[in-house]
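User: Continuing from earlier, I have the next pair ready.

Assistant: Great, send them over.

User: Here they are, in order.

Assistant: Folding the first of the pair now:
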Amino acid sequence: MPFIFKRLALFLSISAAFAADKDLIFRPLPAASYEHHQTNAGVTIGVEPYHTPEQQKTAFGKLDLYQFGVLPVLVVIQNDGSQALRLDGVKVEYSGPARNHVEATPAAEVRYLRGPDRPPVVPGPTGSPIPGKLKKNPLNAWEVEGRAFTAKMLPAGQSASGFFYFQTGLQRGSTIYLNGLTEASSGKELFYFEIPLE
């Protein structure tokens, strides 16, 4: 009998863990549903800056990138055209109101934006220093790279999404510039996208 209760307890705890994880699943909306979106040649791009703790919690859990000087911007691309698109040459820039351009920081480099803390040193019984425990770098979280925009191709009728990271704060009158989308078959580049964040 105790074995059955142990199995039941294990099953219930696993079910509870899965139920808790459902709240952490991040699902972007369709591109046209974002306030900041633009459509060119059958391609709609929606962008959303994640600068509030509530927004970031939905995508990054406990990590608040904005407090470390990183502005995550969600980009959703919907291809309603007839051609597949190549996205491996996409360039995204943040432009402030004074036209100062900030290029996106690669997701793999975000963890290095905050230098390591020096471990606390405590004098030992003989007077020699004993290093303390090193604190974990909060920017070294799987969500940063796991939620980054990584799509290389986008078939017709499909969408792709992910975050780009900028070392800046959100300012009134800023704009997201996006270019480098090309038709896979012809190599023809699409018009650039200029999406105001107001």
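And the other member of the pair:
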Amino acid sequence: MIKQQFSKEQKWLGGILKKLPMSPNQITLLSILFALIAGGLIIFHQFVYGAIFFLVAGVMDVIDGAVARAKDQTTKFGGFLDGVSDRFVEAIFLFSLMFYDLPTVFINPQVWLAGLIFIGTCMPSFVRAYGEHKHVIDHNTANKLGGIFERSERIITIFLGIVIGFFISWQWFIYIIILSIILSLITVIQRIYIIYKETKTT
């Protein structure tokens, strides 16, 4: 997982930003506000400004956890709120792109975006959470489910797709969205299989 590989950098960042006059949860909620502003800008065809605000929202996502650890303010609710915020920010971004003039690749581009919201943004987290909720796996196993295309990889891929779409062709962006759906589906299947194997050993 990419996010875990940069744990040292996050710790360094938290040490710098721990004097911010905001709680980690306030920073988390601020990321949703930035995402809503960004979504509105993209809907009204101010794509560059919208992308900048979404980038800021993504930075907030990194900052909140780093600040929480630096201030020793990590809580179960904070982790829960962070996860919910992550999904809101990503879904708002993909939803706002439905109002952008994107090319059709096989089917309507809105269908591909909706597919990524469901299969990429929602399903991997749902499989993890539902497996733990049903007591099929424990909390430690749930946190280690992994997969080839987790949120960090997905966000980076979508961002690269945006860059390619903006400077080269939006058709390539749609191809990257399709690829992201496929890789997200593989991740969901991987997690289901890991949970299945856990049931065979207990």
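Worth noting for the second one:
The radius of gyration is 18 Å. The chain is about 80% helix and 0% strand.
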